[in-house]
Amino acid sequence: MKHLLFAAGILSATSAIAADKPELTVYTYDSFVSDWGPGPQVEQAFEATCGCDLNLVGVEDGAALLSRIRLEGENSDADIVLGLDTNLIAAAMETGLFAPHSISADYTLPIEWTDTTFLPYDWGYFAFVHNAETTVPSNFRDLAESDTKILIQDPRSSTPGLGLLMWVKAAYGDETPAIWEGLSDNIVTVTKGWSEAYGLFLEGEADMVLSYTTSPAYHLIAEEDASKAAALFDEGHYMQIEVAAKLKSTDQNALADQFLNFMVSDAFQSIIPTTNWMYPAVTPASGLPDGFDTLIAPEKSLYLPADEAAGAREEALSEWLGALSQ
Amino acid sequence: MLKLEDIIIATGDFTLAADLTVAPGSSVAVIGPSGAGKSTLLEAIAGFRDLRRGHILWQGQDLTDLPPGKRPVAMLFQDGNLFPHLTATQNVGLGLRPNGRLTPSEHEQVQSALSRVGLADKGARKPAELSGGQQSRVALARVLVQQRACLLLDEPFAALGPALKAEMLDLVAELVSETGTTLLMVSHEPEDARRIAAQALLVADGVAHAPMATAELLDNPPPALRDYLG
Amino acid sequence: MAGRAQPVNPWPGISAAALVAALILGTLAAVALRAEATRGFGPADWSALRFTLSQAALSAGLSVALAIPVARALARRRFTGRRLLIALLGAPFILPVIVAILGLLQVFGRAGWVSDLLGLIGLPPVQIYGLHGVVLAHVFFNLPLATRLILQGWQEVPSERFRLAAQLRCEGFALFHLIEAPMLKRVVPGALAVIFAICLTSFAVALTLGGGPRATTIELAIYQAFTYDFDLGRAALLSGLQLVLTATAAFVALRLSRGDGFGSGLDRAIRRWDGTGRAARLGDGCWIVLAGAFLMLPLASVMISGLGGLMHLPIQVFQAALVSIVVAAASTALLLALALPMATAIATGRYGIVEITGILGLAASPLVIGTGLFILIRPMVDPTALALPVTATVNAVMALPFALRILVPAARQSVGRYGRLALSLDMGERAFFTRILLPRMRPQIGFAAGLTAALSMGDLGVIALFADAEIATLPLQLYRLMGAYQMQAAAGAALLLLILSMGAFWMFDRGGRWHAEA
Question: Per the database record, which ranges form the ABC transporter domain (chain B) (predicted)?
Fold first, then answer.
């Protein structure tokens, strides 16, 4: 009914109805709040303990999320931003809008986490996903030499797209332009976002698609389909760590801290694997769901710390544009 | 009395001058070569064209700056005299109340006007369901209820066959004489002019001349008209 | 006859145009004013401009070139199902972009039907990605529009001329030269300019099918400026550039076309006496079959792949469908409230600026309008609370150019034909509008409303900028399903969207023509 009221343009003051409870507003990306994302379960679990109203606001993707925060500036409605990744942290810090936290947790990340402003809540490795029966290259050089066709996302409009740039940069440094030139004839097309690329891959438009090592887990667990696999690259896999932070301007300081604590607790972390299809930042006591054990485990984790990533971003983008625009 | 006081109508490089009077209740045929400005003259009287100079008066009242609907003038055009999406009754009703609903007594007026033109039982039909002659009758019924002192006809019956056209002109003649309406009608056929208009005025060479007896004008045509009549 | 000869009050239309201009230019200004230092245009932006112009020119040229034989074949052939085919030909135009892309790829992709066929005879798969893929998709979207515009031209050739030509035994090229070429000379430039303007703002099509960053359009550059660089100044500059380009194309289109609509009466086949030869009949048949297949196969593939998912759609998809229906209805109501007075004002022939304003919607970047509105609304109310009204508004403004093109010729005709009569009856402006214009224009109003409802239903619009977890339109829910790996459900949702869009269009269009007199 709420939908209808809204839809009819009758602006039912939902916040006013719940005015007796404090409200915590969390900005995140759209797929987090979707009915198939972690949002609904997270909201239910947190509201069961906080005596508050958790208001999740979805903003397209990580990059758009940061733009929204910059747009709103110091009088943002958000108390917490959840869904930036390590490639965006430096730009986020530059805004000076985020407040440090005092929360510690036993992260099960492949790297040590020391950032005092941003807290990780999940992570994953970028990887090329393919149909299990096909044989695929085991690194970028082999890929470039092969006839394997790949689908990737545009780094200017997509988080995985930017992640791939960082991956190649972290693995090959100065040789990056040559790698991209080699890859250019393997790339079928570059899509706006992950969904389009993955959709095209499932339609059979390419042999591999840029996604995550955890993608096959979705097919295995949700669809009982073991036909998808992630290609293990021997130069290592770039990590994406997704983070959240409190805004300085929050008027719900204690509640925000409570949420961040909740975020690294079992209640939140156990929701992540089968809704966000990523590794939890703190493996819950119950462990990972069945099926995650079948996933490939990269021997080497590639990762550029936030400040290096920011520096490498411009260069990597222009190398990418240069190699693929010819 | 309809008085065109030293008027000049100008569009582009075409100009038409007139300085004449038409007696109230008279019927005047407007004749002249094609393109001479017969329709233009009628449109100016009806208020669809601005004057460059001069005044148009009716019974001493200056009409020059009145919008078309406020003039004591009804006009029928060559086509588009009825709204195709309205019934005959509704079309006639517009003559009484263009902006609202009819009162019961106005409804009666509409009904009797339709009866007068012989369409008592056709009120519910739309123009597409009426013959050409019947459509003309509906338009005339509307002119009747409008009760304007002047009626201008810009060849509204041109598309009808000769017999039907004659019938319509006779109906017009009857109606204007019943109501004492002043009639100006553009005419291409000398017979039409003779048939219902005692007077005729010639439009030629940029001038609309004063009306004179139709028979006299047609029997002794001035050169411009002679060429046209052949 | 100017000066006093029209029973029309232009002020509501001028006010509506002012509102639209304020929305489009005001949001642009809001973004520009909010901007900090900008790095201005770089070489990448100029190459985006070049690519945008060349793909739009190619798309417009090819759409129109193909539309000519198709329209000619449709104009002179009568066959069972002709009416249905012409109606269905309109479908791609109202198809949500993402749905259309997936449909196109299922037919023309590397693993598509055509590639499968080629594989059977040992040929390599189709290479669809690249400039030609972008053009192919734009032709898919715009061939129906071009065909309708040109078919309209053919229908307006008086049948007496074909009769005369038949008398004179004028056939083939001579007939073309005598009757058809002059008509095409009048109709084609306008069609070219309209499609060129539509293709200028392409984003997802260009990126997905373009095969790489070579295929960067201005709209993508705007997106990049917003989210990747957070350079609002450059976003505003690029958006201004896009507005100028589109306004220019629109101006040219208006000057070149006589303002004909692409409206009703297209299902009437004109009796012709030429083209009875076997070759001509075969040629026309080929064109109709090819165009039909090109436009219908992707639709068919959307239907086929959606059927499975349609049975198992989650309840949220139906809730979103309900929201979309309400948004589409609101959008349509708003559109009519803007477009009808504007069309009336334009019909007086004195307010060309109103017409240009209406066309700006074609050029406005949804991202700029959305962000601008966000900046403007936020100091007053929570923008997410206004997500649906804002979406409906933006959708209405985006549909305005098409609605005006449909409504203006009809308004012009009614004012021209009945204006004097209404004046001599002393009919007021309001009465003329409600008693004459509205009923006279009903078929066109139905068509415009149907188009708007369908476009609004299928368009993602600005909802993604404003939505919270509580509300979602069907296109947004479709993207969310895709984002959650639920491709099958997404295909089902796409089919539902297609059904709703077509249904809304059919309902309004039919309603307009119900019992309408010629």
Answer: 2-230
| Nearest-by-Cβ selection for B98 from C5, C431, C439 | C431
What's the pLDDT tens digit per position in C46-87? 888 999 999 999 999 999 999 999 998 988 888 888 878 877
pLDDT reading at C145 higher than 70? yes
Closest CA to A95 of A76, A119, A114, A108: A76
Q: Which CATH number fits domain A18-123+240-290: 3.40.1190.20, 3.40.190.10, 3.80.30.20, 3.30.930.10?
A: 3.40.190.10
Does residue B159 carry a pLDDT above 90? Answer: no
Q: Considering only CB atoms, which chain A residues are within 8 Å of C387?
A: 6
CATH code for the part of the protein at A124-239+293-324: 3.40.190.10
Rounded to the nearest angstrom, the minimum Cα separation between B229 and chain C is: 30
> Alpha-carbon torsion C388, C389, C392, C398, what sign?
negative
What average pLDDT does the segment A302-326 reach?
88
- Residue A135, classed as helix, strand or coil, is coil
**Partner residue opposite C468 with nearest CB, options A57, A218, A321:** A57
For chains B and C, CB pairs below 8 A equal: 72
Residue pLDDT, tens place only, A185-230: 999 999 888 988 998 999 889 999 999 999 999 999 998 999 999 9
Beta strands in B109-227 (DSSP E): 150-153, 182-186, 199-204, 207-208, 212-213
Would you call C103 helix, strand, or coil by DSSP?
helix
Domains located in chain C, CATH noted: 1-33+312-518 (1.10.3720.10), 46-306 (1.10.3720.10)
Q: Chains C vs B: touching, with 3+ CB pairs under 8 Å?
A: yes
ipTM of the complex: 0.85
User: Are the C-beta atoms of residues A233 and A297 closer than 8 Å to each other?
Assistant: no
The residues spanned by each domain of chain A are 18-123+240-290, 124-239+293-324
